[in-house]
Amino acid sequence: MYSTKKIIAMTRKIRVSKSVLNNEEAKAVSRVISGDGYLGMGKEVQKFEEDLKKFLGAKRKVICVNTGTAALHLAVASVTKPGDEILVQSLTYVASFQAISGASAVPIACEVDPTTMTIDLQDAEKRITDKTKAIMPIHYAGDPGNLDEIYKFAKKHNLRVIEDAAHAFGTIYKRKLIGSFGDIVCFSFDGIKNITSGEGGAIVTADLKVAQYVKDGRLLGVHKDTERRYKGLRSWKFDVTHQGYRYHMSNLCAAIGRVQLRKFSSFKKNRQYLAERYVEFLKNIDGVEIFKKNYNNIVPHIFSIKVMNGRRDKLMQYLNDSHVECGIHYYPNHLLSYYKSGILPVTEDIYNQLLTLPLHPNLTRAQQDTVISSIRKFCKK
User: Fold this and answer.
1) d(CA 279, CA 292)
2) Given a cut of 70, is residue 186 above it in pLDDT?
């Protein structure tokens, strides 16, 4: 049992990230349960895909799956064969790498651009071989970096582009929403992303072959089972032409996602406002560096800073002691035993400075002021 003092401390802690749901999502789930009683993938998932397509405002295929990792996995599998190589920055969550290796492709760890926090194309170019088939740019903290240059790079080297846009739902690049253009774009809708479906993800593409591969792949490879499920039917006699997985989204998750999508404009406003306040009040603090971002266009999933002079871990501990939760996004994948691959000095240097501060739509100004004042006090020591 926790002591009363411990419980009070836990409730006072300012969360680094948080799911933001209320009775509206509960009612949506209840509606599905009390409806036809079908909780698997059916008409609610179809409606969520239609909602997302309308939100993006483009004639593209939207296929929902059960996680963002599943989205990446199926995207990779749709355009590669075993042994193919994919260029990807090391500074990303391990899900990006697992999705690649899970499809029997090989993740090639690249440096991160210290300004945009996306893949360093100069470093990536050095790592191209005759096995390189795709590049996976990571839209770190909601920032897609210079997508024009990434697509020029891909065209030059005849590569597919699989955008890991897990952080970037709602972000605008040159007046266009991420996902409304591009080759293959993957979103995550897990509990703390810009919108959530509880667990979930989506693949968006205009490539009909990729779309059909993904549709079948999410349902154990059963050919065109999606179309039957959306009619409330099942496939009792069918064909399977490639490896599939149990990656489909459930009607329960889709119901949550549809409510969250309607709330997105409010979530977006809060996230951008909080990020701009961090920039304003932290920009002139000695020992702290802020990433320069345009929060009129970027919808930040996280807010990371750089802590200089080797003091990152000490500041992290100080904030935790002050009931401020923080994190580190991310431990470089090339340092993991399963993916170990040499030295990436730029990435390793940045990793040792990164610290993620609380950011979610329910973070209050008073809570944010506590975070800011705690950082100021530490940096004056």
Assistant:
1) 8
2) yes
